């Protein structure tokens, strides 16, 4: 209705109202009152309609404003951009456009939220398998009302954290599997049976925590102990009907619906499992170390006893090869052999003392001791010993042997203390030997005429090089010794003697003699021997005058031999004494030696062949054979 129509309606209504009042004969006041009421009614109707339309305008405007807020928040949460601009369109058109835009952004938000939820679930699942070792999950940067941050940046942060969790899980799993591998290897090396019950190729365990953990380890590696007549010999066989697909169950990709989660039926690298495996591995390693220590201790003593008795190398190596590993059977075999050798030692103490005396004599020779020094230093060496078969109930063999071994240790320490000087003196003696050779060669005229050196054309050249070397090195070494020996004597508060005489005085005399010889070189023969007196001025006592066991023939001490092939690396005995010309220790074999061909289990120890291969049985049989009686001092 336009304004003209409304005006005509009002005019017509007013005229009709006036006519009706005139027909009615109402007073003018009533007409005016009726006209005022008509005006008020028309005014109220118009304003009511205006208010109704204004309310619709306000409602649509507010809805558009809310759509604007939601769209802004969704764009911030998803990182998307809005399509189109607001422009000057009517409110209803704006409302429809904004509603469609919000619906589009809500779909994008739901899709991105689902992606974030998948990654978060994978992170929490994998993190639970390793006691939350992956770290804290990244939080959204900003909260946008009821919409959380699902932007591409936040999803990228989640995926980066997921990759970090995977790396941590893989590292812990590798560490756990390495520990489990070591545990199984130690079970095999030590022949220690896991605390499980074996029925064919099926295994079970009681309800104890340790037994259940052993059962879980075997199920993880899909192995079962192999028993021979109810005894475990360190072998495992595959577990029957093992579901090996579980071993490969590991999350390896993102946003894949069919990606398998880590199964909890297998061991997972949690803190508890890692602590249990570490404790079990440490316990088994300590057991192995204890056994190896026992074997090494027995072996060190056996090596010395075998060397004292002159056991051949092949017999030693045969025993070592037949008893490799770290099982209780090997420990028992070494202990049994040591007990037998100790028994033989107690029966043939004179042979041991004779071997020790040979060693002491060699050490005396290395120290250049005179006869008087030897007798005053250790009179027990020259003590007459009774024969093994002679009654000597009052003779303390153990005390005499202990004295000899103590002296051997003491002489070894003296050799170690004087080693630098002895090495320098040895170098000086070699130079002096070369000087003597040159002196003797200078009196051989045939070497100049070429008659005596046809088979050695380079003799003159070698002599010239030797002469230059002697001329340069001999004075230098002499001066070094003249400086080192007094320093050593001052540090040790004792004279440095060789053959009972201060060596520094001997050097000074040699230098004075050389100077005098240079002055009278034309009238006096040169000093031929410029080196010290022979170190071995004393002769070793004759074999007949030294104690010899009547029960066994004299066998020379075996030469130094390398470590047995069954041993991984040679290792000296802890606390072993330093001894000159002593047969070096070798390391007993442990579990590093392959078990194939090694009679390391308990059943092998009971075979007759094993009894025949031990050095103690061979020595016992050789001692049982009658031999001519030797002379005793």
TrEMBL record:
GO BP annotations listed: mitotic spindle midzone assembly
Domain of life (superkingdom): Eukaryota
Pfam families per the UniProt record, alphabetical: MAP65_ASE1
Transmembrane segments: none
GO cellular component: cytoplasm; mitotic spindle midzone
Region annotated Disordered, chain positions: 515-633
Polar residues bias (residue ranges): 593-606, 614-633
GO molecular function: microtubule binding
Composition-biased stretches (Low complexity): 540-555
Protein name: Anaphase spindle elongation protein 1
Gene source species: Malassezia japonica
Gene name as annotated: PKP2_2
């Amino acid at each position: 209705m336009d304004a003209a129509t409304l005006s005509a309606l009002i005019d017509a209504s007013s005229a009709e109202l006036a006519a009706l009042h005139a027909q009615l004969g109402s007073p003018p006041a009533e007409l005016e009152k009726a006209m005022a009421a008509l005006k008020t009614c028309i005014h109220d109707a118009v304003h009511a309609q205006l208010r109704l339309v204004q309310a619709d305008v306000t409602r649509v405007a507010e809805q558009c404003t809310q759509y604007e807020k939601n769209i802004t928040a969704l764009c911030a949460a998803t990182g998307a951009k809005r399509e189109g601009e607001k422009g000057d369109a009517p409110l209803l058109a704006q409302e429809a456009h904004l509603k469609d835009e919000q619906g589009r952004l809500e779909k994008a938000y739901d899709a991105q939220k689902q992606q974030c939820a998948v990654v978060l679930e994978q992170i929490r699942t994998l993190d639970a398998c390793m006691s939350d070792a992956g770290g804290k999950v990244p939080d959204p940067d900003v909260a946008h009302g009821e919409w959380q941050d699902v932007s591409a940046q936040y999803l990228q942060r989640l995926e980066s954290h997921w990759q970090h969790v995977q790396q941590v899980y893989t590292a812990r799993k590798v560490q756990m599997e390495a520990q489990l591998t070591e545990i199984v290897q130690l079970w095999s090396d030590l022949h220690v049976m896991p605390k499980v019950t074996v029925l064919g190729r099926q295994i079970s365990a009681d309800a104890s925590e340790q037994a259940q953990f052993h059962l879980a380890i075997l199920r993880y590696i899909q192995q079962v102990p192999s028993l021979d007549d109810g005894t475990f010999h360190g072998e495992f066989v595959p577990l029957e009907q093992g579901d090996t697909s579980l071993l490969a169950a590991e999350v390896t990709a993102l946003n894949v619906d069919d990606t398998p989660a880590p199964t909890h039926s297998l061991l997972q690298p949690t803190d508890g499992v890692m602590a249990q495996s570490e404790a079990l591995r440490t316990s088994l390693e300590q057991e192995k170390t204890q056994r190896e220590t026992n074997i090494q201790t027995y072996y060190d003593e056996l090596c010395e006893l075998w060397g004292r008795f002159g056991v051949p190398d092949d017999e030693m190596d045969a025993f070592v090869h037949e008893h490799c590993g770290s099982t209780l059977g090997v420990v028992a075999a070494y202990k049994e052999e040591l007990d037998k050798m100790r028994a033989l030692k107690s029966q043939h103490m004179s042979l041991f003392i004779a071997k020790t005396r040979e060693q002491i004599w060699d050490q005396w020779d290395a120290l250049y001791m005179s006869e008087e020094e030897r007798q005053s230093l250790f009179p027990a060496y020259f003590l007459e010993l009774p024969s093994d078969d002679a009654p000597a109930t009052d003779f303390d063999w153990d005390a005499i042997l202990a004295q000899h071994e103590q002296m051997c240790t003491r002489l070894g320490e003296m050799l170690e203390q004087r080693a630098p000087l002895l090495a320098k003196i040895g170098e000086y003696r070699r130079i002096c030997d070369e000087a003597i050779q040159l002196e003797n060669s200078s009196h051989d005229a045939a070497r100049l005429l070429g008659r005596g050196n046809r088979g050695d054309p380079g003799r003159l050249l070698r002599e010239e090089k030797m002469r230059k070397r002697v001329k340069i090195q001999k004075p230098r070494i002499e001066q070094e010794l003249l400086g080192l020996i007094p320093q050593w004597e001052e540090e040790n508060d004792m004279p440095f003697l060789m053959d009972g005489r201060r060596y520094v005085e001997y050097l000074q005399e040699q230098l004075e003699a050389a100077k005098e010889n240079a002055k009278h070189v034309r009238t006096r023969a040169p000093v031929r021997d410029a080196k010290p007196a022979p170190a071995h001025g004393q002769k070793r006592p004759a074999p007949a005058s030294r104690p010899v066991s009547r029960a066994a023939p004299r066998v020379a001490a075996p030469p130094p031999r390398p470590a047995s092939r069954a041993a991984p690396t040679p290792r000296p005995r802890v606390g072993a004494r330093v001894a000159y010309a002593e047969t070096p220790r070798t390391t007993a074999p442990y579990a590093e030696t392959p078990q194939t061909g090694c009679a390391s289990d308990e059943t092998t120890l009971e075979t007759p062949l094993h009894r025949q291969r031990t050095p103690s049985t061979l020595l016992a049989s050789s001692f049982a054979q009658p031999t001519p009686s030797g002379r005793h001092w």
